[in-house]
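Work Package 3 (structural annotation) set out to generate three-dimensional models for the target panel prioritized at the project kickoff. During this period the team completed the workflow that converts sequence records into C-alpha cells, so that structures can be stored uniformly alongside our sequence database. As a representative example, we reproduce one entry of 294 residues exactly as it appears in the project archive.
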Amino acid sequence: MYVNMKYILDAANRDNYAVMAINCINMEMARAAIEAAEEEHSPIIVQFGVGQMAKMAHPSEMVPMIKAMAQRANVPVCLNLDHGPSFEAEVDAIKWGFSNVMIDASSLPYKENVRRSRMVVDMAHANGISVEAELGHVGQAADGDGRTADMYTNVEQAVEFVKATGVDALAVAIGTAHGKYPEGFVPKLDFQRLAELKAALKMPLVLHGGSGSGEENIRKAVAGGINKINVCTDAFHAAEKAIKAKWEAEPNTDYLGICMVAEKAVKEFVRDYIRLIGSNNRYTFDAADNGSKE
C-alpha cells in the first residue's frame, strides 16, 4: 500500500520503534527494499533527493515505478523527497506523486527555516502529503560535522518550531553526519538531548546520517525515541561490496549478473536493518485509513 509518512511514523512513535528510510537510486534498490520489508512484515520508506534525481533517480521514471511496487505490496510504503532544498523542489515532488516531502532549510536562519517549512506544510497538507523538516543541522561526515554541540537541536526552540510550522516529523541533530566517516570513527551521540527532545515534543523524530553510526548507537537512538532512520551510504556500500566479491570470484560476470548480486545484497542489508531498529512484525494496516494514497 502506498501511504504518506505520517501514517507510518505515527504508529512507530506510538509503539517505540523506528522505520528505515533508504535512499534508492534505481529499480533494483527500490525493489530490494520493498521486498525485504514485505518479508519482514515491516513498513518502509523509500527516498531520494534532487542530487540523486539529476544523476540517476529520474523522477519521471522512478516515481510511477515505486508507486506501482508500493500499491502491490502488502505493507505500507512511503516515497519521500529527501532534503528538498526549495519550495519549487517541493512543488515538483508533489506534482510527481511523492507521498512525503522533506523541506531542509536547517542551514538558514531560524525564522527563515520556520517560514519555508510553514509554506511547505500548508501546500503539502492540502494535498494529503505529510512533511518532515529539520532543526539544528546534520552536516557532512567528511567535513567533520556533527561533532560539536553548536549544530545540535535546541529543545526549547524545537517546541516553538513544531508549533509554528505544523510539521509531521522533525529531523534532529544529536551528533550524526551524512556520508562516510573516517576509518574507525564512530560518532558520539547526545542521548540526553534526545530524551529531552522526545519528552518535550512527543512526536516522530528522525535521525539523519544513520550510516556508520554503529549498531549500539542505533539501538539506543531507537530506544530514546527516534522513529525514522535515514540510510544511504551503508546501502550503497553493501551493493558495492557484493559486486566486487562477485567480480573477484567470477571475472566474466556480465551486467545482468552484477545487477542481480547487487539487488540481493541490498535486500539482505535492508532485512537486517529492519530487525536492528525493531520494525519487523509491526505491520497492521487498515485499507480504509486515510493515510492511504492510491
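The chain has one domain: 5-277.
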